[in-house]
What we know:
Layout: H1 4-9, E1 16-21, E2 27-33, H2 36-43, H3 52-59, E3 63-68, H4 72-86, E4 102-105, E5 114-117, E6 126-128, H5 134-148, H6 168-171, H7 186-201, H8 204-220, H9 224-243, E7 255-263, E8 266-275, E9 278-287, H10 295-308, E10 316-319, H11 326-337, E11 342-344, H12 349-390, E12 399-408, E13 411-421, E14 424-425, E15 431-434, H13 443-466, E16 483-487, H14 490-502, E17 509-514, E18 520-525, E19 528-531, H15 537-562, H16 578-588, H17 591-596, H18 599-605, H19 608-619
Parallel strand pairs: 7-10, 10-11, 12-16, 16-17
Antiparallel strand pairs: 1-2, 1-3, 4-5, 4-6, 7-8, 8-9, 12-13, 13-14, 13-15, 17-18, 18-19
Helix pairs in contact: 4-11, 5-9, 8-9, 13-14, 18-19
Amino acid sequence: xxxxxxxxxxxxxxxxxxxxxxxxxxxxxxxxxxxxxxxxxxxxxxxxxxxxxxxxxxxxxxxxxxxxxxxxxxxxxxxxxxxxxxxxxxxxxxxxxxxxxxxxxxxxxxxxxxxxxxxxxxxxxxxxxxxxxxxxxxxxxxxxxxxxxxxxxxxxxxxxxxxxxxxxxxxxxxxxxxxxxxxxxxxxxxxxxxxxxxxxxxxxxxxxxxxxxxxxxxxxxxxxxxxxxxxxxxxxxxxxxxxxxxxxxxxxxxxxxxxxxxxxxxxxxxxxxxxxxxxxxxxxxxxxxxxxxxxxxxxxxxxxxxxxxxxxxxxxxxxxxxxxxxxxxxxxxxxxxxxxxxxxxxxxxxxxxxxxxxxxxxxxxxxxxxxxxxxxxxxxxxxxxxxxxxxxxxxxxxxxxxxxxxxxxxxxxxxxxxxxxxxxxxxxxxxxxxxxxxxxxxxxxxxxxxxxxxxxxxxxxxxxxxxxxxxxxxxxxxxxxxxxxxxxxxxxxxxxxxxxxxxxxxxxxxxxxxxxxxxxxxxxxxxxxxxxxxxxxxxxxxxxxxxxxxxxxxxxxxxxxxxxxxxxxxxxxxxxxxxxxxxxxxxxxxxxxxxxxxxxxxxxxxxxxxxxxxxxxxxxx
Length: 621
């Protein structure tokens, strides 16, 4: 039994990480502390300065645990790893947790190649980036291809030199064809890839000077074809250089610039990557529930998460606000990079202007989000109003619930409940059920069970809220829906209406009917089928709901199967293991067919002893 007072007394005065759990053992918050005793105690002291978010978190803490570390730096690293692993509810979380792509040049090989890579390795190759997406990487590699024409085929060099004819790329002037014996020496091959590296590093001035000199030398030697190729490369590099925005032509520094804009409860963070004095890319993030957190804390948590899995750290990070724990975070990043990292919040001058430029982009992202949300809300409201009109509903269905059953050959039945609120799917409100009432493929009985359990749970929760056992926020089946959509036709509808009448619920229920090709066709009600035009927005919305509930049910079924949590009636029969069960399902296709099979049919599929055991299980001696 967790005794809060005792645990608070026993907290050590050492650095470490504290982990808050709720009553369901979920990790809801992870934090680090220089002195665990002081930091954790603060949460449970009466303090007028506690934000509503902290108060809500403390109200949900059932117990806490902690991990003592040797230093605050070690605690910071552990905190980052635990947040990334558990994604606690009350921590600031980056939803975009992807690894940014890089361009890799295997310059450590005798005959290098150029690739896209999502990981940085200490393998002797050169990595360029990060880039904000695959499209940017592809575009950059395409520019490299057009200028330098490196090989893209699967041939290995030098083994495949002189073997076979050159491929199409050579004939369309898209490859310098090192596969042709005697055409390109090893040193010439490597020289081209050194030029590619120089180009990707942004050293265009040096590269252009070298190519200019090489072009003049070739011209003097009357090597006009080579000179023409160099001339075209020089023109291409100059055109590319003109498109890049130059930030600082003198210092040629590697800098990340971070700024943020606030919109209601959200913070929009923009990161601009500057490499060799030029903007090479940008990243955008939307962080939820930041209304009670200072911008310094938001950027502090952002930096920790953003760079926790990123090994490409610049020497300088410019931030719009003073970052909490700046010295600690700077030391941690310096350790990761192997060189000093400066985190600066500029107040004036050129760097302040750069922050202003990135901030404008963050404001633009926030404004675009606001406008898009308004447009989406208007569209959804219009669709919901049309649904209410077409289905003769008394009110607009703000909360729509949809149900589907999933099984394999009539066994391992599960069900999914998906929820759409104001026309948008709300995954946190999805619920899943393991069917208990039947082992066979009785979808009607399964659907009745699910509906009954769903409304029984809702009534239990209403009573618990009334008695003060739980709060409204803790309920999982409230509020009730305004509309129920079933993935099925008249049979499903009739079985559910029977239950709804029995439990005295008057919520509108409709079945989503499919055609012969298993595509959405329309809706069915008590009074018959409602035709919907495929061009109608209501039809498109119903199709979306039906596809989502079907996907959700199948995904849940697969998840249980992958964990070995699903069960078939055949598992209850002595002597029927995985091999015989598989054989029976191959022959009869479903548990129902096995159940209805005669003894002679079973004996044709498996040995007599197993056949008798199966027959006796389903029919009795």
